[in-house]
Amino acid sequence: MSAATHPLLRVDRVVKTYESTAGPVHAVQSLSFDLERGAFAALVGPSGCGKTTLLNAIGGLDRVTSGQIWIDGTEITALNDRDTIEFRLHRIGFVFQAYNLVPVLNAWENVAFVLELQGVGMKARRDRAYELLAAVGLTGKELQRPSQLSGGQQQRVAVARALASRPSLILADEPTANLDSKSTETLLDIMHELNRQEGTTFLFSTHDQRVIDRAEQLFRLDDGKLVASN
To answer: What pLDDT score does 226 carry?
Structure first.
């Protein structure tokens, strides 16, 4: 698949089944959709409908039972574990509900962590981290550790970290779930502006109406199936 002539993301007949003591659980059922480059989109639906399972599969954090997922012209479902990790490191950014910052690192070191894993030099990764922290409204907070930041500020650090390596796609799993209304609106403003200015593609999983109202494209899931999209 050529990256230039196809959607940034293609999910093709993806199935994810878990085994349980009560029998197989069909978390995702033959689900297909395309996402264009530069989209600001969301997987929506009630808890347990398969949003996070699908997002984890798209991010290469979990293997699908069957089907294919393509990102930027690469079929990630065909990669081995080592190549999946390498692809994820360079091409996908993650924003998690629980922030997942490293407690012993300060804000700029957390943002630069992915760049350090990529072997980027100290000055270049520090400059990129400071640039992104400014972009998310955290100038002056660069040396503070997560414990010294509010929940909303920690999530902004997580967004900056996700952007650090200029990935093709940012996956955000319920990123506003632990935030108050003001912090949520600030975070969504920042991500929407980054989407417009830099063309960064965002795909959320959410049942937060505030996120749904901002999304320009919605994929509605229910019981592991895609029931509507617009």
So the answer is: 95
Which helix (H) or strand (E) is 95 found in, with range? strand 92-95
Question: Domain 39-52+81-229 maps to which CATH number in 3.40.630.30, 2.60.40.2550, 3.40.50.300, 1.20.1250.20?
Answer: 3.40.50.300
Parts of the chain with a pLDDT under 70: 1-5
Question: What whole-number distance in Å separates Cα of residue 108 and Cα of residue 113?
Answer: 9
**Within a 10 A sphere around the Cβ of 216, how many other Cβ atoms?**
13
| Short-list 178, 92, 183, CA closest to 136 | 183
Query: How far apart (Å, rounded) are the C-alpha atoms in residues 14 and 199?
Result: 27
User: Which sequence spans correspond to the domains of the chain?
Assistant: 39-52+81-229
pLDDT at 213: 94
3-state DSSP helix/strand/coil percent for the chain, to nearest 5? Answer: 40, 30, 35
Show the tokens assigned to 179.
């935030």
